């Protein structure tokens, strides 16, 4: 008798580099998905695992939704802040992993008030603009890529919209939090077409992670 060996389709998992990656490697190890090279040390960007049909792809956080949207990777792990900023819709949100938790806030000097056409420094221009529009205010966005807290301190902006973990950096620079725009954690998402075509493989991976 011939025995039929089931052939599983390859699934690619995109993970954003940095803080999320460290926590995800731990989750994968516990789910018995072990990388053949240490993603925290290796310079390889596509890493095979102990499962022939699962590959890990290491991508900058802001690029994860783009790769998912294009279908070049099937599933990805990314912060909800990145999804809110990119506004790309071609994915299903499969699971909240409850890792890399923080919050997206509006902060500024303690004596400030919101006003029309105020200056807001951020690396999240779409989120910031949308938030202030929702509360009926226009703002001028200044896009920065690092040390966002410095902008109001040096009067480059009135407020900032940024990710905060403990809030220590904000306080130490003489700023205070005004509003929480969103709580942030990392989600497991899937390309819509990949989920239909590779549903069994993706569901099998989900079960492992759960």
Describe the protein in words:
It contains eight helices and eleven strands. It has 210 residues and is α/β, with parallel strands linked by helices. It has helices at 19-30, 64-70, 80-86, 125-134, 150-153, 168-172, 192-197, 199-209; strands spanning 11-16, 46-48, 54-59, 75-79, 91-96, 102-109, 118-122, 139-143, 159-164, 175-184, 186-191. The protein starts with 10 loop residues before the first strand and ends with a helix.
Q: What is the share of helical residues?
A: 25-40%
- As laid out across the biggest beta sheet, the strand order is 2-3-1-4-11-5
Q: What is the CA-atom radius of gyration, in angstroms?
A: 20 Å
Q: How far apart, in Å, are the first and last alpha carbons?
A: 37 Å
Unreliable spans are none
Strand proportion, as a percent range, falls in: 25-35%
Major sheet, described briefly? 6 strands, mixed
Tell me, rounded to a whole number, the average pLDDT: 93
Assembly state here? single chain
What would you call the shape? elongated
Number of strands: 11
The H/E string reads EHEEHEHEEEHEHEHEEHH
Number of helices: 8
Structural class category = alpha/beta
């Amino acid at each position: 008798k011939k025995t039929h060996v089931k052939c599983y389709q390859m699934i690619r998992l995109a993970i954003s580099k940095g803080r999320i990656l460290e926590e995800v490697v731990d989750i994968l190890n516990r789910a018995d998905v072990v990388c053949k090279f240490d993603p925290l040390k290796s310079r390889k960007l596509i890493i095979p695992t102990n499962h022939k049909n699962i590959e890990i792809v290491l991508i900058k956080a802001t690029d994860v939704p783009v790769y998912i949207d294009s279908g070049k990777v099937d599933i990805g792990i990314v912060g909800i802040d990145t999804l809110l900023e990119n506004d790309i819709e071609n994915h299903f949100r499969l699971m909240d992993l409850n890792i890399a938790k923080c919050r997206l806030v509006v902060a500024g000097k303690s004596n400030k008030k919101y006003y029309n056409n105020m200056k807001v420094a951020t690396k999240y221009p779409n989120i910031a603009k949308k938030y202030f529009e929702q509360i009926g205010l226009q703002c001028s966005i200044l896009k920065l890529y690092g040390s966002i807290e410095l902008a109001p301190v040096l009067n480059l902006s009135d407020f900032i919209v940024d990710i905060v973990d403990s809030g220590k950096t904000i306080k130490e620079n003489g700023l205070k939090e005004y509003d929480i725009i969103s709580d942030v954690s990392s989600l497991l998402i899937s390309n819509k077409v990949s989920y239909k075509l590779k549903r069994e493989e993706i569901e099998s991976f989900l079960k492992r992670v759960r």
